[in-house]
Write a structure and sequence with these properties.
With 74 residues, the chain is an alpha+beta fold. It is built from three helices and two strands, in the order βαααβ. α1 (16-24) crosses α3. The two termini are 21 Å apart.
Length: 74
C-alpha cells in the first residue's frame, strides 16, 4: 500500500525546512563532527531544497510517501 502525504513546514523554533532536515539527517550530520561543519552543510542543503519546497504564498511543503508491504516466505 502506498500513501502520499503532504506536510507544511512551520517556521517555529527548531522547525521549518532546517529543523526537518536536521531531524531526518542526524546520522549523516554526525559524521561531519564539528558543529561548524554541520551548520555549513545544513545551510547548503536548505539552499538547494528551498526552491522545491516553497510555494507561491511563501509557505514550505514537503511530500513524502509511506510504503507498507507484507513479506511472505516462499
Amino acid at each position: 500500500m502506498k500513501k502520499i502525504l503532504e506536510s507544511e513546514l512551520k517556521n517555529s523554533e527548531n522547525g521549518g525546512l532546517e529543523g526537518f532536515m536536521r531531524l531526518i539527517g542526524v546520522q549523516m550530520l554526525d559524521i561531519l563532527g564539528s558543529e561548524e561543519k554541520k551548520n555549513s552543510a545544513m545551510q547548503q542543503i536548505c539552499r538547494m531544497l528551498r526552491y522545491g519546497t516553497t510555494r507561491e504564498d511563501g509557505s514550505q511543503w514537503i511530500t513524502h510517501v509511506g510504503l507498507r508491504c507484507v513479506a511472505v516466505k516462499p
